[in-house]
C-alpha cells in the first residue's frame, strides 16, 4: 500500500511541477497543529515530509505561527516567559520565515498569516513563492481541562478546542481555493498529500488545452508554409526547370565479378616452354604443297595390358624342337 501511495504522490508532484513550476527543495509552511501532531505520533519532521512529497524539502515556520505556539505555553515564574515546548524543533531544523504584516511587526492570527503568504495578491490568486502547506487537526493541549469535574472549566476548554478546529478547517478551505497549493496533513499517524483541488484542476486543464492549441497551430503553420511554397513554384515555372540528365554507370552490384587468375611461378612457365616442341612433333603442324600449315590430330596412346604380354610369351617356340627339326633334315 505504501508503494502505491508513493507512486501516486510522485505523479501528483509532477503535475505541480509541470503546471505551476514547483521545484526541489519544496518550501513547506508548517503550522502549530502540524508540529503538535508530528510530536504526538513520534514522527521525524524532515524524513516524513520527504517521503510524502517525494523530494527534498525545506520546512519553514512563520513568525506568527511561532507566536501562537508560545502563547499556548504556560509561563515560567522565574523568567516571566513561556516555556519552550518539546514539539518545537530547533532553528537549525526549522528556520524562521520573517513576515511583516504591519509597521510594528506585531504578530497576527496564524491562519491569516499563512493565507497571506500563500497568496499575497487576492486579485491574481497565485502561489507566487510555490509554498506547500503542512497542517493537521488540532490536538488537545496539556492545560486543556476537557475531562475536568468543574463544568465551567470543561465548557471553556471545549470552546477553545472547537475554535481551533474551526480555524484549522478555515485554513485548509482557504488553501484549497488558491490554485497551485499542495496540502499535507496528518491523520491518524499517517502523513497524507491531498489531491488537486478544483481550482488547481481547472488551471491544469487550461494549461493542457493551451499546449494542445499551440501544437495544432504550429502544425497548421507548417502546412500553410508548404502550400505557399508550392504556389510559388507553380507561378514561377522557370525555377522548376531542370538540367539534362547525366549518363550514369552501371550498378556495380549487378555486374559480374572478373575471374581472378593465379600468378604462375617461373618453374611452371619453364615447363610449358619445354613441352611445346614435343606437342609439335607428336601432333603435327605439316606444310602443304601450297606452303600452308595444317594441324594434324594427336594420336592417342594405347594402353598395353598385362594379358597381352603373357600370350606373346606362350607363343614362343622351344629351342629343343628347333634342334630336332634340323637333324631330321
Task: Explain what this protein looks like in three dimensions.
- The chain is elongated and about 145 Å long.
- The protein is built from ten helices and ten strands.
- The C terminus is likely disordered.
- A hairpin with a 2-residue loop joins strand 7 and strand 8.
- By secondary structure, it is of the alpha/beta class.
- Among the domains are: 195 residues, Rossmann fold (3-Layer(aba) Sandwich), CATH 3.40.50.1010; 31 residues.
- Helix 5 runs parallel beside helix 6.
- The termini are far apart.
- The chain has a six-stranded mixed β-sheet, with helices on both faces. It has a two-stranded antiparallel ribbon with strand order 3-4.
